[in-house]
Write a structure and sequence with these properties.
The chain is an alpha/beta fold. The protein contains 13 helices and 16 strands.
């Protein structure tokens, strides 16, 4: 029986992917095999020694101690692309909110205090202050062409916008999905110099933290609109406030409210709604549940931020060992030697590595004793051993 601990409300449709006869799911489990999380900050928690994996029902991993889990040999799964459509739609909505002054106009109408027979005249008299502009023909710059960035780019093309993009690490699959009308930019600075709107779709890392700073605001076209539905910290808020004051930035639409900016009349702050649709929550929950199940039951790795991908069919009647070790020489040989000493024949072996971690699946035609498992665990550099 596998034990799954939920740190946030996870969609029941996702949790239903775990067969009840083999899985116990609760928010109150003391020694779980897996933790499932959405927004809860695991960095503030002590992760139990019983943990075999962490599943994040979403794309961002800022709330998960990935480095610590890697050192412990624990894969951290996530769900890239599962909420991409929800974010794509909100980015498009953000551009419309900005260019048509919708929030300001709505606020004005909701505070009109005149009699019914004066309402039409009042609206006609003041509507000119909310005149906006159209998206068609404007240039949208997209920094980061992953699943979300590509969807935003293609949607903007269909609205008649010119789209430019920058992502030196774009994958082949994403490149195939991207409209041929999107013009590549070879640097962030080149993109910023040519965009009327800029939308960010990158993770928060040491490289991207404050990537938009006072120097880069000077590069931008006057009257640019920035859309941040990626991560707080990508934009230097002090520098942004200065750019808003000088009207270098016309408006800022963000999913990450800041005390410095929240009251500014040309800042539209939303309460982290990017993935807050029923469809996105269900997609993320189903995706993470299936990834976790395949890892627990077959040792398969898909969409783990800190582990290599590996998928090997489990032969009938085979016993599978799942082994995590430091990515250093001679590890597979040492493991194989322990099995050979116990007269255990390897039917198949698959080994993959990613940075400091190596992951091995070994299929054997007979049961491995606890003594042999302990011998493998005792090899210097072995982090985790499981018999499936």
């Amino acid at each position: 029986m596998f034990k799954i601990k939920t740190m946030n409300a996870i969609s029941p449709i996702g949790l239903s992917q775990f067969p009840k006869e083999h899985y116990e799911i609760s928010s109150e489990i003391d020694h779980p095999d897996v933790i499932l999380v959405r927004s809860h900050d695991l960095k503030k928690d002590i992760i139990p020694t019983s943990i075999k994996a962490i599943g994040r029902a979403g794309a961002g991993l800022n709330n998960v101690p990935v480095k610590e889990m890697t050192q412990r040999g624990i894969p951290v799964f996530y769900t890239p692309g599962a909420n991409a459509n929800a974010v794509r739609e909100l980015v498009i909505a953000g551009m419309l909110l900005s260019c048509r002054n919708i929030c300001q106009a709505w606020n004005y109408v909701s505070h009109i205090n005149v009699s019914a027979d004066q309402l039409d005249a009042e609206v006609e008299k003041n509507k000119k202050q909310f005149v906006g502009f159209e998206l068609m023909g404007k240039t949208l710059g997209i920094i980061g062409l992953g699943s979300i960035g590509v969807k935003v780019a293609n949607a903007a093309i269909s609205l008649g916008m010119n789209v430019i993009g920058h992502d030196p690490t774009i994958t082949v699959n994403r490149a195939w999905e991207l409209s041929s009308q999107v013009k590549p930019m070879f640097s962030i600075d080149e993109l910023l110099a040519n965009a009327d709107f800029v939308s960010f779709h990158v993770p928060l890392t040491d490289t991207t933290r404050n990537m938009i700073n006072s120097n880069r605001f000077q590069i931008m076209k006057p009257g640019v609109t920035l859309l941040n539905f990626a991560r707080d910290g990508i934009i230097d808020n002090e520098a942004l406030l200065d750019a808003l004051q000088t009207k270098k930035v016309l408006s800022y639409v963000t999913d990450f409210p800041s005390a410095q900016l929240i009251q500014h009349p040309r800042v539209i702050s939303l309460p982290h709604l990017g993935a807050s649709t029923l469809e996105a929550e269900e997609n993320c929950a189903v995706m993470i549940a299936n990834q976790v199940r395949r890892f627990l039951e077959f040792g398969s790795i898909t969409n783990a931020i800190n582990f290599p991908s590996i998928e090997v069919p489990l032969p009938a009647n085979a016993i599978r060992l799942s082994i995590v070790n430091a990515n250093i020489p001679n590890m597979v040989a040492q493991i194989s030697s322990k099995l050979a000493d116990a007269s255990l024949n390897i039917a198949s072996l698959a080994n993959q590595s990613l940075h400091d971690i190596a992951y091995t699946l070994i299929d054997i035609n007979s049961t491995v004793s606890d003594i042999v498992l302990q011998q493998i665990k005792s090899i210097d550099g072995v982090l985790q051993v499981r018999m499936l």
